Amino acid sequence: MNLTLRLLSVTIAFVAATFAGVTACAQNIGPETVTDSVALTPSGRLLTVSSDTIPSHLIRGEVILSPEDTNIGELCADTLRLPDGVRLRVFNPDPTRAVWLSALCPGLGQLYNRRYWKLPIVVGAYMGLAYATSWNNGMLTDYTNAYRDLMDNDPNTKSYMNFFAPNVKEESLNKTWLENVFRSRRNYFRRNRDLCIISMVGVYLLTMVDAYVDASLAHFDISPDISLDWSPAVIQENRGALPGVGVQWAFTF
């Protein structure tokens, strides 16, 4: 009997203590104002942003922006909250450095400017021109040797016969015709080889110019208002009595 009374009294005391604690916690909760990092409208509604304008990746404690995200002054409260000690830095390529990198190796300037899609174009142009130069130079060597053997009157040097089928006899060929053909083919492949080499130099200079211009215009402000207005116009001329008829136009950029 005494044990039952003791258990009943302990249970009542535990329930009373739990209720008192819950009541005290409820009394301490008040209308406290909490500052949230998410921007709200004046009416208190959640301000949603369809697409963020700042990339969320961090590089060495800095947020790196692409050249398209430089107009930070016109942005409203953004959804990205920077941690403590992280500063915002806009990527600003140096045109001089971009030119020197392109001069060191074509394509490095484009990588420095973060125009990665241009690298396959530069590499493909050089590979194609290098192959064309090698092939034309090989053909030039063959036709040069054949033309030299044809003109030296040495019966032991007949490399020009390698261009014909084995059943073709040298006596059946016209020597004057052979001289004209081999000379024209030699000049043709020499010209193509030289053009390929000049094109490789042109691509080299073009990559330098492209890297410089791209770095210089990385932060060029392009206005969204680009329009062309035109209308008929009557042009007064002092040389004649009748006015001229033309078109006037205005380009807004």
Mind explaining what this structure looks like?
This protein is mainly α. It is 46% helix and 11% strand. It contains 5 helices and 5 strands, in the order H-E-E-E-H-H-H-H-E-E. The strands form 2 sheets. It has a 3-stranded mixed beta sheet, with no helix packed on it. A two-stranded antiparallel ribbon has the order 4-5. A hairpin with an 8-residue loop joins strand 4 (227-235) and strand 5 (244-252). Helix 2 packs antiparallel against helix 5. 12% of the residues are buried.
Coarse shape: flat
Radius of gyration: 41 Å
Residue share in β-strands: 5-15%
**Class per helix and strand makeup:** mainly alpha
For the largest beta-sheet, the strand count, sense and barrel status come to: 3 strands, mixed
Helix content bin: 40-55%
* Tally of alpha and pi helices: 5
- List how many beta strands DSSP finds: 5
Which parts are unreliable, with pLDDT below 50 for 5 consecutive residues or more? Answer: 1-5, 24-41, 46-52, 54-78
Mean pLDDT: 74
Give the termini distance in whole angstroms.
Answer: 99 Å
Seen as an oligomer or otherwise, the chain set is single chain
| Topology order in helix (H) and strand (E) letters | HEEEHHHHEE
**Order of strands in the sheet with most strands:** 1-2-3
